[in-house]
Specification:
The complex is a heterodimer of chains A (696) and B (614). Helices cover 3% and strands 55% of the residues of chain A. The longest helix of chain A has 6 residues. With 696 residues, chain A is mainly beta. Chain A is globular, with a radius of gyration of 32 Å. With 614 residues, chain B is mainly α. Helices cover 40% and strands 4% of the residues of chain B. In chain B, helix 7 runs antiparallel to helix 8, helix 7 runs parallel beside helix 9 and helix 9 runs antiparallel to helix 10. The chains are: A mainly beta (696), B mainly alpha (614). Chains A and B meet through strand 7, strand 8, strand 9, strand 13 and strand 14 of A and helix 1, helix 3, helix 5, helix 6 and strand 2 of B.
Chain lengths: 696, 614
């Protein structure tokens, strides 16, 4: 029921340029079939750009874009599909209707085609996007631009589950309708000054920005349709059971002020000074705005006299040093407010009739003092080009400190809350990035270029909540210290993505049965390390196992141009050393005796392996733990081959250009990881694209 | 021309910049919540506070509802039930191994101890918010303030009554928490209960005797006060608070037929009492405090799953895979509904998760007239009430349509596992018709939290502790004779007899573990003997009434029954108190929350507080 899926994508565009105006127009259509039967979506998009110079000093323009995405198709249910055994029956006893459970085990298996057969959807997403601008030139090197960028998103998700679905028959039709409108806009005012005095050049920018987000969402669920549900999702009024209705409207605003000065002397000495002031309404109770300064210096030292000797091999070299601060506002629009969720509850009157009454329940703690998360980083870098551009690239070292991180801090459940959004402590990041571009070969008929980048990052929690008092056994204060936050897995001096868990040593083997029983396990269950040897698993046995983020990453791209007409390229990238959860190895997905499943290794007394537990192994027991495995991988992410027809030929055909191409996306991956894709633990499609670009 | 144009352009620049600067004004960034309430704009008038109180009720309702309902965890730590799931390891059967601070304590596939810990504290937090904000609400009259305060006291006391008997000494916040508080300390159980007693003594002065059903009334406050009085060993106070409800007259035991099935002669008052439509009906005078759920009301959806699903939990799992066989060895049952013999839509598709013990379906039934165990009227059901329904048997096996049999003609077992698939059950309690799930699992219904029958049994218990067996017998008999049993004599009475009566009357209503622990504390405090043995508070976690009673009556734990998966039923003395979930201790970075004796981490305990911190 997974299929080789066809995708197609067509675009037609027209553009024209005249003295005082130019325009661009395009229409596109894309249809994608997913890997699962019935999983397809369609997109139509169109775009119109117009720019006109209405006076020598003034240009106005409009970019307009419309897109509609259609995701109405109902794919087959993969979970049910996996579970259906080859001995099941597709149809019921009448040979026509779908069997509710092909395995005749409704508690564990439903017909994978039930949804596709008995569910109708209209899932359409329409987006309008526009950008209107005025650009003008002013005297003395000034220029000015105003951008207004509105965006409207409409969403319609209508869904009808038919009364004919044998599993839902008693509910006589279920309809969900969701409508949402999102309107956002941005207004940017940019004043620019550009001037040269001899070898001094100045480029100053001043920006004023405002933005607004508004959304309106309505949800309706209705069921029990009479006289029938034949009208699908289009007749809510015939639902005999009171529909469940809810709405959620949201609002947020932001603004920014920015000033920047770029100065350089003789293209040798560079200075950039920036000051930003950003505001966001989610911090609006006490600290809506924050200032972020930065300064950068650069020196193109290859142009200095003392480097003349090196000019035979060194084309260009520039040293950079910068200090910069910036902010992060990635939190919910209302995350800092105490949110009283509302709903209804039923009381029953003295006469015995139900009455719906209002009900509120707080779901989180307010944090009016919440503020922007701040990054400050010192960056040192070199840009270079040597041997006449055969090798070029950059090297960067950085030391970034993040303060006031926006995180959900786990609270003692005694508060009645799970967590609170807070600005927390301090995390230090250090790392490097290296980029190398090489022109390996350049002959008349063969060109070969490579791009390599390598990077690595280490982080460390420097500070959490500050020091708190320590007490001795009698309750006397004996000092203060910083405490780790074990509940959140945050430890002073450790990586914030550290994995603190029990180490899985292997599988309890038959010979270990007696020992296993002491710990509450049996042969075939995973064996954890009892680090303190006290004969039981407790939190004292947890250890630091590694990190969930890569220790080291790299990308490599190679491009070839052959005989001037063929372009060939391939891309490799790698993530190395990270840990990924692999609880699938516990083999507890479902009741294997009642359903089908993926073929996966499992322990038996006759197959005494150590990396997978027995089927239905004890996956929890006295402690909760996860299986972690390294998911290092190298992926051949893209291969592309293109042929451009020689212009002599195309001219003959009265066309400007013709290019045909063939791409393979996700061509292959090398990894020890055993369960689907190492990057996302899911089915990742491999795409083969044939395409043609025609320019008239 | 160009000069002029330049000027216009400059002017428009100035204009636009000044508009943009509007953005930088303070109120531009003021947060505007459009669809959410805040405490500041809600807890200002009577309706706002009432909505907060309804939120408390809604929060506690979850105990009886949904798949793997939390009440099952209360029942399996008692004499009446065990976890019957036999196809995976995880469900709480071997308490020694699985009930640990670091184990999964809040999952349908394990146990729901953590649900109680979290949800009771959420209820307490909601009540604390109301109580902290009420004095400042100038728009609420003093008379209304007293009622609201009393009702909020009820919800807070309810939470602490449960926590102190599930976990013993626990932290005790009594004010609204408004910032990241991480320095909670454990408070002595008796200190907390004494405070709750004071609060409820306030509540019973002001909360009205009659409110809408589902809302808190004075009877519910007295009933909870009775439990707390008992828990503190104040038996005279308990008799007084129970008598206040019993003698008030508003609430009465239902002794005559009533409600939806009243005209069906084959049924009886016990059946009537537990019909979904009758629990909160105008005619029903027995319910003191109800939680509510009505199909077709918006709140019915907040359960998460459709319906209570109570039949799924409690009815034997005769249709899970191929596990019930006809005498000729063919698969006897299918789970499909809509077949000719539609068993699944009569009893619901049970999975035997909450498996009744022989104590519950056999040992306690000492009077054949007892309507609560009557199978002729259909109140009780046996596996033999079901019939082989597999359509494939029709015409090929003479067993089709015949009653299920446990053994074949030669004595072979016709059932894969009697733990999960073969036991009698109280149909009148768990039969909640279900129009949402196919096959039925248990639909929507109101549920009794406190019922007058229990008030009688609480007063009987108080008399018994005082040694007044005659008065105790009179109260027990009020409940017994309503169910058509012969009365007990004073000589029949003991705490054990009262516990048996509770098991007969209050299945899937009373939190059995909470009540057993309460009684265990009383035995330890009074030094009164049970089966000739006495207990002390000092050794509560190594020798107590509760676990002795479970081992006496629940043969699964006593005999260390082994499931077909090889898991063993075990329970130990220290399980009288549940473990404090480890994450609560860990997240409390700035002070120590004590762990209960017997669990890892208890060695780092500090002395519990004698006073509730402000």
């Amino acid at each position: 029921m997974n299929e080789n899926a066809l995708q197609h994508d067509h675009t037609i565009s027209i553009s024209q340029r005249r003295d005082d105006y130019n325009y661009y127009f395009s229409v596109g259509y894309l249809e994608n079939n997913g890997l699962t039967v019935g999983d397809r979506y369609k997109t139509f998009r169109t775009r119109f750009n117009l720019e006109s110079t209405i006076a020598r000093y003034l240009t106005v323009g409009l970019n307009f874009q419309f897109a509609e995405r259609d995701e109405s198709s109902v794919p087959v249910n993969m979970n049910d599909l996996i579970r259906t055994t080859p001995w099941g029956s597709y149809y019921g006893t009448d040979g026509v209707t779908l069997r509710a459970s092909p395995n005749d085990d409704p508690g564990n298996n439903s017909h994978p085609f039930l949804g596709q057969t008995y569910e109708r959807r209209l899932y359409k997403y329409d987006n309008f996007f526009a950008s209107a601008y005025v650009k003008g030139k002013l005297p003395w090197g000034f220029s000015y631009q105003v951008n207004f960028t509105p965006r409207l998103d409409f969403l319609r998700e209508y869904r009808h589950q038919s009364a004919l679905n044998p599993l839902l028959a008693s509910r006589k039709g279920i309809v969900n309708r969701r409508n949402q409108t999102v309107y956002t806009w941005q207004l940017d005012n940019v004043l620019n000054w550009n001037k040269k005095y001899g070898k001094h050049s100045f480029d100053a920018t001043f920006l004023v920005n405002a933005e607004k987000f508004q959304s309106w969402n309505t949800n309706i669920q209705a069921e029990n349709f009479a006289p029938n549900d034949n009208l699908g999702f289009s007749s809510l009024q015939s639902a005999t059971q009171a529909p469940v209705v809810s709405s959620d409207d949201q609002y947020a605003t932001g603004d920014a002020l920015m000033g920047r000065l770029n100065y350089n002397y003789d293209q040798k000495y560079f200075l950039t000074l920036t000051e930003r002031r950003d505001g966001y309404s989610a911090f609006g109770q006490q600290n809506p705005r924050a200032n972020f300064p930065s300064v950068a210096l650069a020196w193109a030292f290859s142009d200095e006299n003392f480097m003349k000797n090196a000019s035979s091999w060194l084309d260009f070299a520039k040293a950079r040093i910068s200090y910069g601060e910036n902010g992060n506002r990635e939190i919910g629009r209302y995350a800092a407010l105490s949110n009283l969720n509302s709903g209804t509850y039923v009381y029953i009157s003295a006469a015995g009739t139900p009455i719906n009454v209002g009900r509120v329940a707080g779901s989180n703690l307010a944090n009016p003092a919440l503020k922007w998360e701040r990054n400050s980083s010192i960056n040192f870098g070199i840009d270079y080009s040597i041997l006449k551009g055969v090798i070029s690239g950059s090297i960067d070292l950085y030391d970034r400190t993040t303060k006031d991180l926006l995180v959900n801090r786990t609270l003692p459940s005694v508060t009645g809350f799970n967590s609170i959004l807070v600005n927390l402590g301090e995390v230090k990041n250090t790392g490097f990035e290296i980029a190398i571009n090489t022109n390996n070969l350049k002959t008349k008929n063969v060109e070969w270029r490579s791009t390599i980048s390598l990077w690595s990052n280490r982080n460390k929690i420097v500070n959490l909540y500050g020091p708190t008092p320590d007490y001795d056994a009698s309750g006397k204060q004996i000092g203060t210290s910083q405490k780790d936050d074990i509940a959140n897995g945050w430890f002073i001096g450790r990586n914030i993505n550290t994995v603190f868990d029990y180490r899985v040593l292997g599988v309890w083997q038959t010979a270990d049965a007696a020992e296993a029983r002491k710990y509450g396990y049996k042969p075939g269950d995973f064996r954890l390390e009892d680090t303190n040897g006290d004969g039981q698993y407790t939190i004292a046995d947890k250890q630091f196992l590694g990190m969930t983020t890569p220790e080291f990453s790299w990308n490599l791209r190679n491009e070839f141009k052959l005989f001037k007409s063929f372009d060939f390229a391939f891309n490799l990238y790698a993530r190395m050393g990270q840990l990924t959860q692999f609880n699938e190895a516990k083999n507890v997905d479902l009741f294997y005796d009642r359903a089908q499943f993926y073929q996966r290794p499992y322990w038996t007394p006759n197959n005494p392996i150590n990396d997978y537990a027995a089927m239905m192994s004890n996956a929890g027991g006295p402690v909760t733990w996860n299986v972690w495995r390294k998911s290092t991988f190298v992926r051949l992410s893209n291969i592309s081959l293109a042929y451009t027809l020689p212009s002599a030929t195309t001219k003959k055909w009265k066309i400007d250009a013709l290019k045909v191409y063939f791409n393979v996306v996700n061509a292959g991956v090398i990894s020890n990881w055993k369960y689907f894709d190492p990057e996302n633990k899911a089915l990742t499609p491999q795409n083969f694209n044939f395409g043609m670009n025609l320019t008239l | 021309m160009n000069k002029k144009f330049n000027k216009i352009f400059l002017l428009s620049v100035i204009l636009l910049v000044s508009i943009a600067f509007q953005g930088c004004k303070k109120d531009w960034l003021e947060p505007k919540p459009l669809s959410i309430y805040s405490p500041e704009n809600t807890f200002v008038d009577v309706l706002g506070f009432k909505a907060g109180l309804a939120g408390c009720a809604n929060n506690y309702r979850g105990e009886w509802y949904g798949d793997g309902a939390p009440i099952i965890t209360e029942l399996i730590f008692s004499e009446v039930s065990v976890e019957g799931t036999n196809d995976k390891t995880g469900p709480a059967q071997n308490m020694d191994l699985q009930i640990r601070p670091d184990a999964n304590l809040n999952s349908v596939d394990f146990n729901r101890i953590g649900w109680f810990w979290n949800q009771m504290y959420i209820g307490i937090r909601m009540a604390n918010t109301i109580l902290t904000r009420l004095p400042e609400a100038t728009a609420v009259s003093q008379a209304n303030k007293d009622i609201i305060q009393g009702q909020a006291f009820f919800y807070r006391a309810y939470g602490y009554y449960r926590l102190t008997h599930q976990f013993g000494d626990v932290p005790c916040p009594v004010k609204e928490v408004t910032s990241a508080k991480t320095d909670f300390q454990t408070v002595k159980r008796e200190v907390i209960l004494t405070r709750m007693k004071q609060d409820l003594e306030f509540a019973v002065k002001f909360v009205p005797w009659v409110t809408e059903k589902g809302d808190v009334n004075r009877a519910a406050c007295y009933h909870l006060l009775t439990k707390i009085n008992l828990a503190l060993g104040l038996f005279d106070d308990a008799i007084a608070s129970a008598s206040a409800v019993i003698s008030n007259g508003t609430y009465r035991l239902m002794v005559n037929r009533f409600g939806v099935d009243a005209s069906r002669a084959e049924r009886n008052v016990i059946w009537d009492l537990h019909r979904p439509d009758n629990k909160s009906s105008a005619a029903n005078a027995e319910g003191l405090f109800m939680v509510t759920s009505r199909l077709g009301t918006p709140s019915a959806w907040t359960d998460g799953t459709p319906g209570m699903r109570i039949m799924r939990q409690t009815v034997p799992g005769v249709s899970i895979g191929s596990t019930i066989f006809t005498p000729s060895g063919k698969v006897g049952m299918v789970a499909t509904s809509g077949v000719e013999i539609d068993i699944m839509n009569i009893f619901g598709r049970g999975i035997g998760r909450c498996r009744s013990t022989s104590y519950h379906y056999n040992m306690i039934w000492d009077d054949i007239k007892d309507l609560r165990h009557d199978s002729t009227s259909g109140n009780w059901m046996y596996p033999e009430n079901m019939r082989y329904n597999n359509p494939a048997l029709k015409g090929t096996d003479t067993a089709y349509g015949l009653r299920l049999r446990l053994r074949g003609p030669t004595g072979t077992l016709l059932c894969e596992d009697t733990l999960r698939r073969w036991y009698p059950w109280p149909h009148y309690k768990v039969y909640i018709p279900d129009t949402e799930n196919t096959p039925m699992q248990g639909g929507h219904s109101d549920w009794y939290v406190f019922r007058l029958a229990e008030t009688f049994l609480l007063r009987a218990e108080a008399y018994m502790w005082k040694g007044d067996a005659a008065a105790a017998a009179a109260d027990v008999n009020a409940v017994r004779t309503r169910a058509k049993c012969s009365p007990y004599t004073a000589a029949d009475m003991s705490i054990g007899t009262i516990l048996d009566e509770r098991a007969r009357e209050l299945y899937w209503e009373e939190p059995r573990k909470t009540e057993l622990t309460r009684i265990a504390y009383i035995f330890a405090k009074t030094g009164l003997p049970y089966n000739g043995k006495t207990y002390t508070t000092a050794n509560f976690s190594t020798s107590n009434f509760m676990i002795d009673r479970i081992l006496e009556k629940n043969e699964f734990y006593r005999k260390n029954f082994v499931t077909i998966r090889g898991d063993v039923f075990r329970i130990s003395q220290y399980h009288v108190l549940w473990p404090i979930p480890q994450e609560a201790i860990l997240a409390n970075t700035d002070a120590r929350i004590n762990q209960n004796i017997g669990y890892s981490g208890a060695s780092s305990n500090v002395p519990p507080l004698d006073k509730i911190p402000d």
